[in-house]
Design goal:
The complex is a heterodimer of chains A (about 110) and B (about 120). Chain A has about 110 residues and is mainly β. Chain A is built from no helices and nine strands. In chain A, strands 1-9-8-3-4 form a five-stranded mixed beta sheet, with no helix packed on it. In chain A, strands 2-7-6-5 form a four-stranded antiparallel beta sheet, with no helix packed on it. With about 120 residues, chain B is mainly beta. In chain B, strands 2, 4, 5, 6, 9, 10 and 11 form a seven-stranded mixed beta sheet that branches. Chain B has a four-stranded antiparallel beta sheet with strand order 1-3-8-7, with no helix packed on it. Classes of the chains: A mainly beta (about 110), B mainly beta (about 120). Chains A and B meet through strand 3, strand 4 and strand 8 of A and strand 4, strand 5, strand 9 and strand 10 of B.
Chain lengths: ~110, ~120
């Protein structure tokens, strides 16, 4: 299983774009990159997933370089409600989905 | 569609007592997971079921934890006897195994406090 490394915490201000980078040097050919968001007292929630290049949905964008050894979650114009823990995961299908420690994002007014 | 249901939401017990948590996954989801999340840490996989068979239980403390998924739908996670370090949120998740990308859907969790 590919291990992921991401910053422990980040602070930003409302209205800013936030980029959280995750490194996964040992990613396997079949692995997808998935990001989850977790608010206090809730289970994690899937926000975006990609295999290569760029993926965008209504919540975020995911940038994956050609070597796939890292990925960047981009949250446009964050608000206070985006304060949460963000987890980067790599894996194939639903086999042994392993969470790391995540990045605690704190949005300031 | 209905999400993953878990109960109870909160449970307080004394050490050496037993406790059971229940999970009802999203209809049609073949894969079911139990995670343990200690305060300040990421979720830790305890056990993964595919239908009613165990795929992985390498992180399950089998001397005190047990889990079953009868008929490939609902699941229960039991702790007996509980220790102080079992205080955590127990999260149940399910996924549609047929998909290649394995998106997990989580319940709200069951918060256990062991005194």
């Amino acid at each position: 299983l590919a291990k992921t490394t991401q910053p422990i915490s980040m602070d930003s201000y409302e209205g800013q774009e936030v980029n959280i980078t995750c490194s996964h040097n040992n990613i396997a050919t079949n692995d997808y990159i998935t990001w989850y968001q977790q608010f206090p007292s809730q289970g994690p929630r899937f926000i975006i997933q990609g295999y290569k290049t760029k993926v965008t949905n209504e919540v975020a964008s995911l940038f994956i370089p050609a070597d796939r050894k890292s990925s960047t979650l981009s949250l446009p114009r964050v608000s206070l409600s985006d304060t949460a823990v963000y987890y980067c995961l790599v894996g194939y299908r639903d086999d042994k989905i392993i969470f790391g420690k995540g990045t605690r994002l704190h949005i300031l007014p | 569609e209905a999400g993953v249901a878990q109960s109870p939401r909160y449970k307080i017990i004394e050490k050496r007592q037993s406790v059971a948590f229940w999970c009802n996954p999203i209809s049609g989801h073949a894969t079911l997971y139990w995670y343990q999340q200690i305060l300040g840490q990421g979720p830790k996989l305890l056990i993964q079921f595919q239908n009613n068979g165990v795929v992985d239980d390498s992180q399950l403390p089998k001397d005190r934890f047990s889990a079953e998924r009868l008929k490939g739908v609902d699941s229960t996670l039991k702790i007996q006897p509980a220790k102080l370090e079992d205080s955590a949120v127990y999260l149940c998740a399910s996924s549609l195994a047929a998909r290649n990308t394995g998106e997990l859907f989580f319940g709200e969790g069951s918060r256990l406090t062991v005194l």
